[in-house]
Here is the input.
Amino acid sequence: MIVRWPIPCHGIQAGEAFRRLRNSTVFWSWAFNFLRLGTGLVLLPLLFHKLSSAELGMYYVLMGLMALAPVVDFGFNPTIVRFVSYAMGGAETIQAQGFARAKTAGPNYRLLWRLFYTTRLLYRYLSLVVLVLVGVWGTYVVEMRIHETPFPNVARAAWAVSLVATSFDIYSGWAMIFLRGMNEVLPSVRIGVLSTFVKFGVGAGLLLAGAGLMSLPLATLVGSLLQQSLARRHCHKKLGNYPPPEKLDVWEELRVLWPNSWRLGVTAVCSCLTAQASTAICLKFLGLISFGQYGLSCQLVGIISGMAMVWTQVKWQVVGQHRTRHDYAAMQRLLWPRFWLQNLTFLVLAAGLLVCGPPLLQGIGSGKQMLPFGWLACLAFYSFMELYLSFWTSLISTENRVPFLWHAVAASLLSVSLSLILIHTTALGIGALVLAPVLAGSVCNYWYWPLVSARSLRTRLLRFMFGVPQASPAQESSPA
Here is the structure.
């Protein structure tokens, strides 16, 4: 086998290189993540100087609650993306378990229209569920420590705006989900870049104007409105030449979506509830300022993980199309270089954060801190292992099955239990929240599911990782 660099660069003129970059989903996804990182770096000094330490802690509480909302999606997002990719691959129909083999060479537009209307209706109801469920839990969490903030009523108003913005953000995402399933990743990322830039501009302006905790929730609402409008228009443009079927049974489609959606949903709920439990434990036993350190560290490591994940994230839709055709060799050729690029990207960026992060933060002179070096390294290791696990479980999911459900549930319960035990029986302090999930994941998930998932590629784990599949001519000539 021959080692080949995944992005060919020999004999490319400047104009051709620019064209490839402009049409590359990886480039735009990286631009999106760099924009998120850049806006974060710009907004952090503003947050440090415009918010007190207690308000900064409340800000991360609000961000954590807003991150809870996607859990109400309950696994429909990846399931819809997967089924749309099947339809784009020519599948005649969708089924609750497994997948139908492709019957046509091109997309099945009748099935695409059915999934389009199903997705739109589904996310209308999900946004209402977010408004109720997240509203109840979030109000309890906010009120737990709101007396520590200098202006409690302002914090309450900020939470109310955050709740409305989060609910609409869930609804506005349905068209983006559908675009990704159609392998329209490039326009969806471009829309994400534009909406993120708008969020940044509005948020920075409101912070400078003295809006405080209200700034970023209001910016999120504005960005979501823009995203919804642009993504929906692009969906209609792609489907416009193919009229929708006259009769649609949306509820029948939802019944097909449900069996694996609830399984993915339970895993997402467990992951999110684990994070919320960590928040509650930290607020209960360590206070708001300590949670500010923990939240800042998680945010920066999360940005790194998101940037590394780009290499594989933009190709799961194509993997789904290859899956319907049972083309396992193409799947291996597609995924191998991106698997390694994902891992190496994370390691390089994490090393940069560990070495440069604390001095840069100290240079800002805000008095704010990340976790101590040892615990920050442990947090980075945990995020790397979760990224590694996510690759393999996502690969299993392309078969429209979720066998890892109860292992994920057990790991989440074990993580919370270990956090409480370590907090009460050791002097680790906030380190208990970092060490517990590492220990829980290492029991089974980090080694077992990669072994199982590699078999779905008709190969073995070590053979896939180090065998270096030879690229096909078509792959060599395509942009990244």
Observations:
- Residues 26-467 form one domain.
- The first helix runs from residue 14 to 22.
